[in-house]
Design goal:
mainly alpha, 10 helices, globular
């Protein structure tokens, strides 16, 4: 059996704050509108998505009384995800201040997550979706940190995304460990994988199109060209789906089989070392 992560190494960083002000550009990615809104679209999914993850895992918290190490991990996971949700919500508010109308997308997204998935899906399926989406996020996070996707992007966005990516790798096994304890069947794990992948990539596409449609002068032709350009230029997206599905479908899969925690911890150590100066400057 793969050992679970030392709970002392999963911890929130409440001192961190990411500053986006009126000078932050609408098009901040060197890849142009398509790449900018591809990542903006993903940002739009995080606040509600993180809250769904926490709620899905929290449903089983009382069943972890006999597993104190895992219970400690879960609480650290809650704290990290709560911080992610708050920081990305602040970024969504920045997008709205720049003139983007996100109300239609947010309304549909909330109805799907809270009015349908959370309301009608059985708890094991919600937990399985969470475990699968945490795996996709960890794969995406690894590629984000190793491929230099944001090297030429705006520094504030780079700091936000790379911090989030590193913490996702840090806690990547938590939801999976809870699933393995309370609902270990392969069928529920794969059901969560396909339901989660369909929800993630469908909503991500919808969010990206919502933003691109509001860029002046693009039209539908320009929108499609930008989507294709983003698909070609951003290596993270094209690698995540197939790798994530292939790995997760392996019956013996466990998130810790991909030994990339050193990558996250090196990045987080640099963030922690710089944090006192950043807080003082703020």
């Amino acid at each position: 059996m793969v050992p679970i992560i030392d709970p002392a190494r999963i911890r929130p960083r409440p001192h961190l704050k990411f500053h986006f002000d009126a000078s932050f550009p609408r098009i901040w990615h060197h890849g142009g509108p398509g790449s900018t809104h591809l990542w903006n679209g993903l940002n739009m999914l995080f606040p509600q998505g993180e809250r769904f993850f926490v709620r899905s895992v929290n449903h089983y918290l009382d069943q972890l009384e006999d597993a104190p190490a895992l219970r400690a991990q879960v609480k650290a996971f809650f704290a990290q995800e709560g911080k992610h949700a708050r920081e990305h919500q602040a970024y969504i508010e920045l997008l709205e201040s720049q003139g983007y109308d996100l109300s239609g997308f947010i309304a549909v997204y909330q109805r799907l997550v809270w009015g349908f998935i959370d309301k009608y899906s059985p708890p094991p399926l919600r937990l399985a979706m969470t475990a699968a989406l945490e795996h996709f996020t960890a794969v995406m996070s690894e590629n984000t940190l190793t491929l230099g996707v944001f090297a030429d992007g705006h520094p504030a966005m780079r700091q936000l995304i790379e911090w989030h990516a590193a913490e996702e790798i840090e806690h990547k096994a938590v939801a999976f460990e809870v699933l393995r304890k309370v609902a270990p069947g392969y069928a529920v794990r794969t059901a969560g994988l396909f339901a989660g992948a369909l929800s993630l990539f469908g909503l991500w596409f919808f969010a990206t199109v919502t933003l691109l449609r509001q860029e002046p002068g693009l039209g539908w032709g320009g929108l499609l060209r930008e989507l294709w350009r983003a698909h070609r230029k951003d290596p993270v997206l094209v690698r995540v789906l197939w790798r994530g599905v292939k790995e997760y479908l392996r019956p013996s899969f466990h998130p810790l089989q991909n030994d990339n925690l050193h990558l996250a911890r090196a990045h987080l150590a640099a963030i922690d070392a710089a944090a006192p100066a950043a807080v003082e400057a703020a």
